[in-house]
Amino acid sequence: MTPDAALQRGRWVKLICGAGNQDLAAIEDLCALYTAAGIHCIDIAADTGVADAAKRGIDWALARGAQRPWLMVSLSDGADPHFRKASFQPSRCPSDCPRPCQKVCPALAIGDHGGILTERCYGCGRCLPACPLGLIEEDQQWLSSEQVPALLQTIAPDAVELHTQGGRQTAFEARLSQLKTSGIPLQRVAVSCGLERGAGSQQVPALSPPELAAELWLRFGALRRAGYRPIWQLDGRPMSGDVGAGTARSAVKLLEAITPWAPPGPLQLAGGTNAKTIELVGSNSKVAGVAFGGMARSLLQPWLQDAEKRSQPLRQIPELEAVASSSVKALIQPWLER
Questions:
Q1: Tell me: the pLDDT tens digits for 44-90?
Q2: Partners of 159 in the beta sheet?
Q3: Are the CB atoms for 27 and 21 separated by under 8 Å?
Q4: Cβ atoms 289, 332 nearer than 8 A
Q5: pLDDT-derived band of residue 112, with 50, 70 and 90 as boundaries?
Q6: Predicted pLDDT of residue 113
Q7: CA distance 42 to 100
Q8: Is 231 helix (H, G, I), strand (E, B) or coil?
Q9: Looking at the whole model, is its pTM more than 0.85?
Q10: At what angle do helices 294-309 and 24-37 cross, to 10 degrees?
């Protein structure tokens, strides 16, 4: 089924590698195994090295008969949790610190004796409150207006995702202008937004569903004027799908709240999505599909770690690849068969 057909029939599945994830070896394997399982889109960081790794993984799956998914690049129109990296100076840590930051990091981005492994950090933020001395800081990582057109021309993605928040219509339209300047024809522009205000706005009340819908209608007008077709990515509880089954409710509740108010275009779940999401969605015909991020990555983590110890790609170790692929199919097959 083509990506467009999957969106229309409610069977769309997207892999979110992470807007800040630059772990090239893991990304290559993630893209290989999820493409082989039949997903329709892969969302990656705006980075040429990441794009090359994703394409290598996709090519591995295509050589085995898979259908090519859309390659989507994530951008933001301002400060956003998905585009931050944690940082701290290890020399400031007490020698007897039990390192709670390391224990809560889902990306294994905090080394045993060093600081943050920047390429692995994707901005979940769980380490920030975990540090007993408050030594961990966050740094925003997003592209300038001058960088976007050239980067898109180099990567040549099929789609772009724009992370936005309330009150940023002008910044959103500026990003759209940069997409047009690149000259790259895009199948879709996904708009990622939720009720949470996100980075840099902790003192601002969260949006209500009607307020979020009003923001999406503004974005819809801008997309129409620019000639782009939208996907509305409803970010229920960002970067939390691996936390537990309960997080799946956030995305579904947001979908139910926003559906009566939403502008035209497919509604796709994200933020907290995991294996329980399909049960909560049930037969809801308003759902175009789902994106798996933290859940998709954590699912493969044990085998990725094993492969790393063997200094080989996961996809090239038959006994590991077989069991990992089986787990991937169990996660996404219910959506492909809706």
A1: 999 999 999 999 999 999 999 999 999 999 999 999 999 999 999 99
A2: 72, 188
A3: yes
A4: no
A5: confident
A6: 72
A7: 32
A8: strand
A9: yes
A10: 120
Best CA proximity match to 331, nearest among 286, 304, 299: 299
Residue 317 carries which side chain, given as an amino acid letter? Answer: I
Q: How far apart are CA 228 and CA 246, in angstroms?
A: 34
Q: Residue 110 in 3-state DSSP?
A: strand
Which residue from 21, 74, 65, 67 is spatially nearest to 43, judged by alpha carbons?
A: 74
DSSP 8-state secondary structure symbol assigned to residue 103: H
- The rounded distance, in Å, linking the Cα atoms of 324 and 111 is 25
Average pLDDT, the chain: 95
DSSP conformation class of 274: -
Residues 6+ apart with CB under 8 A from 205: 197
d(CA 112, CA 115): 8
pLDDT level of residue 121 (50, 70, 90 thresholds):
very high
Buried b (16+ CB within 10 A) or exposed e, 229-251: bbbbbbbbbbbbbbbeeebbebb
282 phi/psi in degrees, rounded to 5: 60, -130
Q: How many CB atoms lie within 10 A of CB 336?
A: 17
Give 178-216 pLDDT, tens digit per residue. 999 999 999 999 999 999 765 454 556 889 999 999 999
Share of the chain above pLDDT 90, in %: 93
User: 124-141: per-residue pLDDT in tens?
Assistant: 999 999 999 999 999 998
- Show the beta-strand stretches assigned E in the chain: 12-16, 41-44, 70-76, 84-87, 137-140, 159-163, 188-193, 230-235, 267-270, 287-292
Three-state secondary-structure class, residue 91: helix
Query: By C-alpha distance, which of 117, 118, 171 is closest to 148?
Result: 171
